Amino acid sequence: MAAVHEIAAGNDPAALKLFVEMRRIAQAHELDGEDWIRGWELVISLLREVNDTRRIELDTLVARMSASQDGRVFADQFGVALQALAATPCAKVVRCKGPDCLCVPGPEQSRR
Question: Residue 46 contacts by C-beta under 8 Å, 6 or more apart in sequence?
């Protein structure tokens, strides 16, 4: 959750650092969270730059995760996040319901 808030705030380095820490914790406890973590890394990448290779990787990852009911719940987060975060560049996200987010405007929004 903290990493997603960092993505919404445009602080990609902090989000990526949190994902590195999540990967370390998952490995230390022999948990399989690699697809979920990689999915969020791809979300960051796709929000900042259109890239067909990364989009294909995310689509493949979503299909693999969706093979199980539990995985589908997590895989569905990526599409909602891409839609919500791309449509709502925020300095600070207050709350989201589905793809609709309420945010505190940053300097770039207040100049419009």
Answer: 54, 55, 58, 82
